[in-house]
Amino acid sequence: MALLDEYHALRRTAGTVDRSTRGRLVLTGADRRAYLQGLLSNDIVALGPGSGCYATYLTAQGRMIADMRVFETGDSLLVDLDGTIAQAVADRWTQFIFSEDVQVQNVSASTAQIGIYGPHAAGMLEAALASGRTPGEQSPDAELLRSLPIYASRRWDFRGAPALVLVSDDIGVMGFDLVLPANLSADIVSLLREAGAAASGAPAAETCRVEGGRPLFHVDMDEDTIPLEAGIEDRAISLTKGCYVGQEVIIRVLHRGHGRVARKLVGIEIDPAGSLPARGDRITAGARDVGTITSAVPSPARGRPIALGYVHRDFVQPGTALEVGGSTATVIALPFVPVTPLASPEAAPPGR
Predict the structure, then answer these.
(1) How many CB atoms lie within 10 A of CB 81?
(2) pLDDT computed for residue 348 by the predictor
(3) Contacts of 183 (CB under 8 A, 6+ apart)
């Protein structure tokens, strides 16, 4: 399929995205939530079975070690994070365990993570899991899947093995991630295709992600980033929980500094006649160097190149005029495109 067709599948019907390069850690033991409560920025203790949240893991200086999604499944915590740092985080958390009843396991290699995203993802996922069940197994219905809130998780059986379904908007489109044994990856993808899902590759997912204004670790955020600079504090930080590593810096900026940071991640829209910037390109305002591009894509929804980038705090207001690589540009409020919701039960995919 052409890139534009893969993109339209994610926006209009549903597409599969292989997300197995993500890292997956499983924490078990009675103290698993209390243990992470002191390490992560969101309220992990408050999670009940089937719920989850987005969080950051910070240094004492408030800089990011990782961002992650944390899902309480009822008997364990599943942590989804950048795959390149999964083992390092697992090792670090293991080293911090003293008398707590916690075990940390990196299951990234033994599991696959297959995304199905788009307005009709729920119906196609229902069909795929129903086709893949063995006698006596249960599978979800689309109405239940559509009713689940963001970061919810549910476990069903697939080919006799547990499959965890995670509600996700990670790529700027609503959908689901399935975490299941790696040897069943091809099976679930085949059944999703039979149900009508298109094969959407990483470039199409990346376009949706940037349009959705979702920063990605090691692309738009790194070990020098404070969460407030990336604009993820509303999703990732609890202001009511107890102490966690890095909290002092975050509270100081929020309360004493009124949330002002030296730089901020913003949306940048390039003139339609301008060229697509590259990661690392400088952002200027007149003769002043004010920032750097971190991600850029040609946006079908906006009809022009768009980008994410950090700019000096004096240039973050929507409507601010900038230049990137000789092209005129404008600061735009994020997201460029609102997250595409799941379709109502009455709405049938085109052609079905």
Answers:
(1) 23
(2) 56
(3) none
Q: Name which of 106, 81, 103 is nearest 94 in CA terms.
A: 103
The secondary structure of residue 349, as a DSSP letter, is P
Residues 251-282 pLDDT 10s: 999 887 777 899 999 999 999 999 999 999 99
Amino acid making up residue 109? A
List beta partners, residue 332. Answer: 267
What's the confidence (pLDDT) of residue 351?
A: 47
Query: Which tens digit of pLDDT belongs to each residue from 174-224?
Result: 999 999 999 999 999 999 999 999 999 999 999 999 999 999 999 999 999
Topology, domain 263-335? Elongation Factor Tu (Ef-tu); domain 3 (2.40.30)
Closest CA to 173 of 224, 235, 122, 135: 122
Residue type, 116: I
What is the CATH topology of the domain spanning 3-207? Gyrase A; domain 2 (3.30.1360)
pLDDT over threshold 90, residue 1: no
> CA 154, 158, 162, 167 torsion: positive or negative?
negative
Per CATH, 3-207 and 263-335 having the same topology is answered no
- Locate the domains of the chain by residue range: 3-207, 263-335
Q: For the chain, percent helix, then strand, then coil, each to nearest 5?
A: 25, 30, 40
Give the pair of three-digit tokens for residue 37: 């409560």
